[in-house]
Automatic annotation (TrEMBL), chain A:
Pfam family, one: CT_A_B
Annotated source species: Veillonella rogosae JCM 15642
Source domain of life: Bacteria
Annotated Carboxyltransferase domain residues: 32-322
UniProt name for this protein: Carboxylase
UniProtKB/TrEMBL annotation, chain B:
Keyword set includes Metal-binding: no
Protein name stated in the entry: Allophanate hydrolase
Lineage: Bacteria, Bacillati, Bacillota, Negativicutes, Veillonellales
Carboxyltransferase domain mapped to chain residues: 3-205
Keywords of this entry: ATP-binding, Hydrolase, Nucleotide-binding
Pfam families in the record: CT_C_D
Highest taxon, organism lineage: Bacteria
InterPro entries attached to this UniProt entry: CT_C_D, Cyclophilin-like_dom_sf, PxpB
Family matches, as PANTHER family: 5-OXOPROLINASE SUBUNIT B
A GO MF term: hydrolase activity
Length: 341, 247
């Protein structure tokens, strides 16, 4: 059986999950007006999801946190699950991540508490159809902007899926466990394991820290506290010593910048960060290590490795080339989808 | 001071123009932004100006750190000389002072041993430079308020300050772009939308503009409010020498 038209699908939210928001790649270009970027915490898993359902541009998907929502599909659409292992199900059959599935009228998508990782993405062919604000559908709950009324999903919500016409998609039956579909190339981030150090480029404001402070930062273990959300991860560990003041004249920051306020404990700025901040920033975590950080749960320990800007950019280029290759493979895979009977 | 460039992670740089809040530095940053835009470079993703720094996010697949430094370096020369006939943008923000719209006006007046009318004429008699936007969409950090109306923040913040509220916090003044909790002394309210998400140019103000608060009465407030996003703000090009109350 082959399909090539996916029209007018609607998703009904039966249960919202723990904290589920609509995200695309974020609001790029509006930080000069104070608008935070938002977008996915784990952009790598998000982008692979987009490619798996055949989206050539990154569009609205669901970012689930710890427990995914339960959704009923009206119409026909293709979905894929990427990121954290929440044991996703279609009609109560556990399905693998990193494989596209077709859902028909009445199919129920759900899952359980995450077995590994914190954030899972549910991608839909065509993308979620909600109004764009400043070029993006990404939800920023603190600014009450984007997604559905600027908030997380709640039971009873309904949203449309944009229509998509594409080359023929071949549908195969899914036989459940034992049907080996595990795609290691897509699944493996490559290179680093979960608890290897996060690599950091020191910034100009590193001069606000003592030699001892920098040494502590680069060698000790920091724990993710309960104050970790889409805005930032507050870490707890040995005090990172300042020379004198922890305050600077507010300036810009990026995803991964590490602020250290006067209490000496670092805060990593994440997807929903404010555009500017007034605390000294010791450095910034490299792009390739951010998806890994965003999947770590509260209570986990991390440590940092200081790398030069030259090494960081070598790693960046290798990482991006590999990611594009994986996205290419995922896109090729999107023409063969599975169906749960 | 010559600005210095440093890396912010693997795909951004920060240009430090000197750690002071000063209109000349702010102008230098804006001039740099214009020069970078004139280069029409591919892969410049964000330009985020702040009080005395400029953040540039770039595509690190196109440029290495040393390459982007070499490209940006020539844009940092201070080219413009200070002239009083240089044109700047003044955006009028019509504001009702006092009453239910400005519950703290009387406190600001008594705190500074002034009448309410004196506070209004001082506050609306200065054109305020927009140094930067940040904190929440459309929130402006303004400079130039007369210190004779400076007033400390509320000892206990209010849970809800309506959008458009004009406040004073210490020696700062500004407008709340959206409903939010806050501790500023509220002296008035504007009916104008500071950040209109339905527009491509969403923010009414940008860094480098000047804000002029224009006193209006309640009927004018309701007339403008009723126009909603159809209201066309009054924006003037003014010579620097003609700005009000700017030292």
């Amino acid at each position: 059986m082959a399909l090539n038209k996916f029209e007018n699908a609607v998703i009904h939210v039966d249960a919202p999950g723990m904290y589920t928001t609509i995200q695309d790649i974020g609001r790029v270009g509006y930080q000069q007006y104070g608008m935070p970027v938002a977008g996915p915490m784990d952009s790598e898993s998000y982008l692979l999801g987009q490619a798996l359902v055949g989206n050539t541009e990154p569009v609205g998907a669901l970012e689930c946190t710890i427990l995914p929502p339960t959704l009923t599909v009206k119409g026909t659409c293709i979905v894929a699950f990427t990121g954290a292992d929440m044991q996703p199900t279609i009609n109560n059959v556990v399905v693998p991540r990193y494989i596209p599935f077709v859902c028909h009228e009445g199919d129920v998508i759900s899952g359980g508490f995450s077995q590994c990782g914190v954030r899972m993405y549910i991608a839909f062919s065509g993308g979620i159809d909600v109004p764009e604000i400043n070029g993006s559908v990404s939800t920023h709950t603190k600014a009450k902007i984007g997604g559905l009324e600027g908030r997380q999903l709640k039971a009873g919500d309904e949203f449309g899926i944009k229509s998509l016409t594409r080359e023929a998609v071949h549908v195969c039956d899914y036989y459940g466990e034992g049907h080996n579909l595990f795609n290691t190339v897509l699944y493996n981030r490559g290179g680093r394991e979960y608890h290897e150090p996060l690599r950091v480029v020191l910034g100009e404001q590193a001069k606000h820290f003592t030699e001892n402070g920098i040494k502590t930062f680069g060698s000790k273990i920091y724990t993710l506290t309960v104050q970790c959300d889409r805005m930032g991860f507050r870490l707890d560990g040995p005090i990172i010593e300042h020379v004198d003041s922890a305050d600077i004249i507010s300036d810009g920051a990026v995803f991964g910048s590490i602020q250290v306020p006067s209490d000496g404990n670092p805060i990593v700025l994440m997807a929903d960060r404010q555009t500017t901040g007034g605390y000294t920033k010791i450095g910034t975590i490299i792009t390739a290590d951010l998806p890994r950080l965003s999947q770590l749960p509260v209570g986990d320990g991390i440590h940092f490795d200081i790398v030069s800007i030259e090494d960081a950019q070598d790693i960046y280029r290798t990482y991006m080339k590999r990611l594009h290759k994986r996205m290419q493979l995922a896109y090729e895979q999107s023409t063969y989808v599975f169906k749960v009977n | 001071m010559k600005p210095t460039i440093s890396p912010v992670g693997d795909r951004a740089i920060s240009i430090d123009f000197g750690q002071v809040i000063d209109p000349t530095i702010n102008r230098h940053i804006r001039q740099t932004i214009e020069r970078i835009k004139e280069l029409q470079l591919e892969g410049i993703i964000e330009l985020v100006p702040t009080y005395c720094a400029l953040l540039v996010e770039y595509d690190a697949m196109l440029y290495s750190y040393s390459e982007i430094c070499n490209i940006i370096e020539p844009t940092l020369e201070e080219g413009m000389t200070n002239t009083t006939n240089e044109l700047v943008t003044v955006v009028e923000v019509p504001t009702v002072y006092g009453g239910e719209f400005g519950p703290d006006l009387s406190f600001v007046a008594s705190h500074n041993h002034l009448s309410e009318d004196e506070v209004i004429s001082i506050h609306s008699g200065t054109d305020y430079l927009v140094y930067m936007l940040g904190f929440i969409p459309g929130f402006t950090y303004l400079g130039g308020m007369d210190s004779c109306i400076a007033t400390p923040r509320l000892s206990s913040p209010r849970t809800l300050i309506p959008a458009g509220s004009v406040g004073i916090a210490g020696e700062q003044t500004g407008t709340y772009p959206s409903d939010s909790p806050g501790g500023w002394q509220i002296i008035g309210r504007t009916p104008v939308t500071m950040y209109d998400i339905s527009k491509a140019q969403a923010a009414l103000l940008k860094a480098g503009d000047y804000v002029r608060y224009v006193p209006i009465d309640e009927s004018e407030f309701h007339r403008i409010k009723a126009l909603g996003t159809d209201y066309v703000p009054v924006i003037r090009e003014v010579e620097v020498g003609d700005l009000r109350g700017v030292k």
